[in-house]
């Protein structure tokens, strides 16, 4: 019907003349709107599911890649360091491959009944056969607890007369001797160790840290997979037994324990960067029990 009034919808099957223009029209519009809304909601839900699946896939791939990198890092570490851990004097240390440990003498702390004062301690340290007397017959390394040597090729040839040397110094025994001799100062061990090293290397000892160009290094570099440690280091170019040698000194002081590592590398060693990288891995994986040791209740094994 075309005219000025509203359109009238009539349903004449069974009930003629029934006006459905208001009720059915609104209901049809409501049903149509509901169907459209339901479709939109379904699309939104599908889109959300797809986005969630994409985020989960991205996270999974990222974690998978991180796991791959970690195992590559472990493979690199294991290729550089010995599998056997050196665990003595509160230290857990993996030496670089190629380094052989020098036999250690039995220390005075082995017998808890033996007096252990400053004279006994110094006499033991001076007589230690691992001391680098070929550097300077009149000097010695105080607090020497571990020593290793490696014969590495130099300019393509192995020369046993020019070994790489690695020493670990610690105030561990000084704390043990402190129980018998209050004059021993394990807190000042680092100063004594550096002064003794200067004497061995035949250079003037530093009166303070400012006299030598120490550098602070946090290892591992970058993000890494191990907790960072602050090492203070310096490399000194000198001659040892008539051979040009780079002597790297590393200081680490976790709590009451003070550690000094000394790495002497003759100049000209083949693939020297690989050696220093392996030593850096050893520093990163090194563990130190920072507590004050007790002679009568603690053995030489570490306390981790």
What can you see in these coordinates?
- The protein has 304 residues and is of the alpha+beta class.
- The protein contains 5 helices and 14 strands.
CATH fold assignment of the largest domain: Jelly Rolls
Which sequence of SSEs, written as H and E, runs from N to C?
EEHEEEHEEEEHHEEEEHE
CATH class of the largest domain: Mainly Beta
| Count of alpha/pi helices | 5
Assign the CATH architecture of the largest domain. Sandwich
**Total discrete domains:** 2
β content, as a range?
A: 15-25%
Taking pLDDT < 50 over at least 5 consecutive residues as the criterion, the unreliable ranges are 1-21, 297-304
Q: Gyration radius, to the nearest Å?
A: 37 Å
Q: Residue-averaged pLDDT, rounded?
A: 84
Helicity level: 25-40%
Largest sheet: 7 strands, antiparallel
Q: In what order do the strands lie side by side in the largest sheet?
A: 5-6-9-13-12-11-10
Give the tally of β-strands.
Answer: 14
N→C terminal distance: 96 Å
State the secondary-structure class.
Answer: alpha+beta
The 3D shape can be described as: elongated
């Amino acid at each position: 019907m075309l005219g000025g009034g509203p359109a009238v919808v009539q349903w004449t099957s069974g009930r003629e003349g029934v006006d459905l223009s208001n009720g059915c029209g609104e209901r049809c519009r409501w049903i149509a709107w509901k169907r459209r809304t339901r479709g939109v909601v379904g699309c939104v839900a599908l889109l959300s599911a797809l986005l969630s699946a994409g985020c989960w896939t991205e996270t999974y791939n990222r974690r998978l890649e991180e796991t791959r990198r970690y195992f590559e890092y472990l493979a690199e570490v294991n290729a550089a360091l010995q599998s056997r851990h050196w665990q003595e004097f509160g230290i857990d240390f993996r030496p670089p491959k190629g380094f052989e440990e020098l036999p250690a003498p039995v220390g005075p702390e082995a017998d808890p009944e033996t007096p252990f004062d400053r004279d006994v301690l110094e006499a033991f340290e001076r007589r230690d056969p691992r001391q680098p007397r070929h550097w300077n017959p009149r000097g010695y390394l105080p607090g020497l607890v571990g020593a290793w040597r490696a014969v590495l090729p130099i300019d393509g040839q192995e020369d046993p007369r020019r070994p790489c040397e690695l020493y670990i110094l610690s105030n561990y025994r000084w704390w043990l001797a402190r129980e018998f001799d209050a004059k021993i100062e394990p807190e000042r061990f680092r100063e004594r160790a550096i002064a003794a090293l200067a004497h061995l290397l035949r250079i003037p000892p530093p009166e303070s840290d400012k006299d030598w160009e120490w550098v602070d290094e946090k290892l591992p570099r970058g993000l890494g997979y191990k907790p960072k440690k602050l090492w203070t280091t310096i490399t000194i170019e000198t001659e040892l037994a008539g051979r040009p040698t780079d002597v790297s000194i590393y200081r680490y002081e976790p709590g009451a324990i003070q550690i000094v590592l000394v790495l002497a590398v003759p100049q000209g060693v083949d693939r020297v960067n690989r050696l220093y990288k392996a030593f850096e891995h050893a520093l990163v994986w090194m563990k130190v029990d920072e507590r004050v040791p007790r002679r009568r209740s603690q053995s030489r094994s570490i306390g981790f």
